[in-house]
Amino acid sequence: MTWSPGALAPAPGAAPTGQMLKAQTRAELTLMLRNGEQVLLTLVIPLGLLVVLTLIPFVHVPGDDRVGFFVPGVIALAVMSSAFTGQAIGVGFERQYGVLKRLGATPLPRSVLLLAKTLAVLAVELVQLALICVVGLLLGWDPHGSPLAVIALVVLGTAAFSGLGLLLGGTLRGLTTLAAANLLWFVLLVLGGVLFPLSQLGAAEPVLRLLPTAALSDGLREVLQAGHAVPVRDVLALAAWAVGGLALASRLFRWE
């Protein structure tokens, strides 16, 4: 067999951006699913919390529809756990162990890495949302509203929490990120309208409604429980967190 001149000449250069994004997203998703602790955080805890909060009436909610109140809140919690806490901790230790430093020596752009991590989180969230909805239906949940409105809120919430998680993990050391991410997860769980209505917090309610967890959980309740259209206030709040968080993460993110 003969080769024409130049047929075997090397052609160094970066792969097309779409191909890099696809490969990196697959790698991020594989690494995420291999992490047993992260899977526990993102799948088991929200499901267990939904069952406990619905069946054991130690938290007072408006009206008699307990499962209708808690399903949107647990969805918001699941998005926060995946996009913020799990991602921040993972990125923090990747920086500490030198993984990101090695990626930084490749042609992989920072923007493609951040987008790949966000897309991997969205893939995990699809499984989360399916499981939460199934458990909710088994508990007697009767959802209302537009699925497109729910998707829009979840995507915006993912972008908001992902930006914050990448900002935290991309600037702090691994152990510092671990402590800060878990602390913020607990604070947002308590003050974000997941466990109880923000109206019970009195004068702090208007400020707490601006938190991403509160905007996502309240927005989902407006759609799924009340059957309303897309809640503009919550969408704007999530969009502001998404734009601000992703912009700061892209600017301040460090490879090492």
Report on this structure.
- With 256 residues, the chain is mostly helical.
- It has ten helices and no strands.
- 71% of the residues lie in helices and 0% in strands.
- Helix 1 packs across helix 5 and helix 3 packs antiparallel against helix 9.
- The model has no long low-confidence stretch (mean pLDDT 84).
Tag the structure with descriptive keywords:
256 residues; mainly alpha; 71% helix; 0% strand; elongated
Please give the structural blueprint.
Layout: H1 17-34, H2 36-55, H3 66-96, H4 99-104, H5 110-138, H6 147-169, H7 174-191, H8 205-208, H9 212-224, H10 232-252
Helix pairs in contact: 1-5, 2-3, 2-5, 3-5, 3-6, 3-7, 3-9, 5-6, 6-9, 6-10, 9-10
**Helix/strand/pairing class, anyone?**
mainly alpha
> What is the count of structural domains?
1
Terminus-to-terminus distance = 48 Å
Q: How is the quaternary structure best described?
A: single chain
What is the C-alpha radius of gyration, as a whole number of Å? 20 Å
Helix content: over 70%
Q: Could you tell me the mean pLDDT?
A: 84
Please state roughly what percent of the residues sit in beta strands, choosing from under 5%, 5-15%, 15-25%, 25-35%, 35-45% or over 45%.
Answer: under 5%
Q: Which consecutive residue ranges, at least 5 long each, have pLDDT under 50? A: none
Q: Tell me about the biggest sheet? A: none
Element order: H for helix, E for strand: HHHHHHHHHH
Number of beta-strand segments = 0
Q: What is the overall shape?
A: elongated
What is the helix tally? 10
